[in-house]
From TrEMBL:
Gene3D superfamilies: q2cbj1_9rhob like domain (2.60.120.620). Residues 1-22 form the signal peptide. It comes from Triparma laevis f. longispina. This is Uncharacterized protein. PANTHER family: PHYTANOYL-COA DIOXYGENASE FAMILY PROTEIN (AFU_ORTHOLOGUE AFUA_2G03330) (PTHR37563).
Amino acid sequence: MFKSASILLLLLLLLLTPPILTFFIPLPPLHTPTPLLSSPTDLLYSDQESALVTQATLEGEFMKPPKPLHPLKPGAVKSGSGFGGGSGSAFRERGKAIEKVLKKDGVVRINNVLSAEVCEKLRTFVLKEAEQRQKEVDSGTASTNDHFSSVLLRKNRCDLRLPLSPLVKSSLKILTDPSSDLGHLLHCTLGGIAPLQELATMISYPGSTRQTAHPDTPYSPQTPLLTIFIALQDVEKGMGPTTFLPGSFGKKKHEQFREDHDGFLRKAETVEAELGVGDCSCFDSRTIHLGGANESSEIRAMFYVSFKNPSYEYVGNPPSIKPELEGRFCIEDCGIL
Ligand SMILES: O=C(O)CCC(=O)C(=O)O
Ligand SMILES: [Fe+2]
């Protein structure tokens, strides 16, 4: 595909470390009119971005078509344990089954973690917040980094850090409730003292392009973060659902991904999170995944939160959270915010 090994090497280096890019190259603002590319930094950024767009398009062509990411099948839970929810043995059995899927695949889908009503309010809130923050950036009263985190393939896509508004607080409370499937999973896998590491929204506007496949954090022996992506509206195929590579979080998989990038991706099984409003994908940050292209006319807004393994200091990637909220709350605190 690429003519010289050094170009390939450089590209791979760039592809495999998307967040690191931002350490070296200050990013121009999001959603601003395309500036005249004059400075070496601008030119370098623009070259990188177009190399990534090309790579992501190729990946989309040669990777296997995704299967749907399904929630747990009722049959996966011990017979007779039912699907009641709450605190009984059926609930615990289901919890174990959900945890097993996460441990094996590095991603699990849980439906209805927030109600459609809450999601609709959150969606209105985050879209308005994104618009206002972008206006501040455009008018020069704020810089992009004050409100937005860097994002891979940023054309028509943004990662907006969220304030702890009453609605966000009550959503966090619902998501971490230990008597819900998701809350139970969070408590069981990370423990109540796991810090809230990210509190943001990923918005892909119509016209956003496919991301290159990536893990959010480099390989490490344990789960560094559990990230929960919640659909604030139905996410249909053309809206660019997240694609995951189940089981791709391990050391060997990360080595293969680094050393034989395209070969690894060609062979990988993939699943796609076409979600209903309020459904979530919960994934280990080492799991390789990508956001799809939004080819629809609908905005795709995903509310997301990450919780950090309490035994980790730095996970290898700067968190998307307002700096004043960083490290302030843990899972247990979310119930009493
Ligand atoms: O938009 C998505 O579904 C995924 C985004 C993502 O993985 C990222 O920006 O790191
Ligand atoms: Fe990601």
